Amino acid sequence: MANYLIGDVQGCYDSLQHLLKKVNFSLDKDRIFFLGDVVNRGNKSLETLAFIKAHTDNTSMVLGNHDFHLLACAFGKVKANNKDTFTDVLGAKNAKHLLEFLAQQPLVINENDALMVHAGIPPNWDKKTVLERSSLVQKHLQSENLGDFLTKMYHNQPDTWHANLSELEQCRYTINALMRMRFCKANGQLEFAHKLNFDQAPSGYKAWFMHENRLLKDTDIFFGHWSTLANVEQEHIFPMDHGCIWGGRLSAIRQSDQKIFSVDC
Ligand SMILES: [Mn+2]
Predict the structure, then answer these.
(1) Best exposed site among 22, 110, 131, 166 by fewest CB in 10 Å?
(2) For the chain, how many structural domains are there in total?
(3) What are the residue boundaries of the Calcineurin-like phosphoesterase domain, all occurrences included (predicted)?
């Protein structure tokens, strides 16, 4: 029995099946944890999402920014753009069930003392904090006002957490940090313009996992989202987006021994 954690599939269903074959994945014994961005940019978002939903006894996922964007287009007032490739999901016969299922998914999974998240965790948040703040977002995602909530979440501000933020502002910061962050300041102030490797941080910022004050230094954190990350040698930090959609690799890490398996895409 093994847990495999898989980075950004982004609708590359054929690569996913190829990878599962490579690890001899068993639907009877093994589990897959998807680290978000299961849909969009690739050509089989529908098949990917349907696969996850069909095997929920053996699969779990956290929401990534592309998954969230799909929800915002489906339920909120956000318009798909011409790079989006998830019209197969929106037009599917069972779209309603698939999208409701997607809206039920968490932002963070805490499994065997490890945390799984799409983008990262602000340096000044401990485990209790990240779990509480992500649950608050999940509560709204499961509410009657889902569409209104999703529409209101589309904004880069506030870029810093303050205790006096409104509940919706708190959710917006949490979503932006957990689903979109790459670089931030030690106090968790977010920056969204830079997307290159961690050694090319904008002035005053560092990769979220490189801050000295980080409270979760001893916790394994598995994440996706940052396909340009390379040569990270930080203990307990496992970047798993290996750029499948950009002609790179799709990878799974086995949680028990941290062995990485990859297929070319
Ligand atoms: Mn992403």
Answers:
(1) 166
(2) 1
(3) 5-159
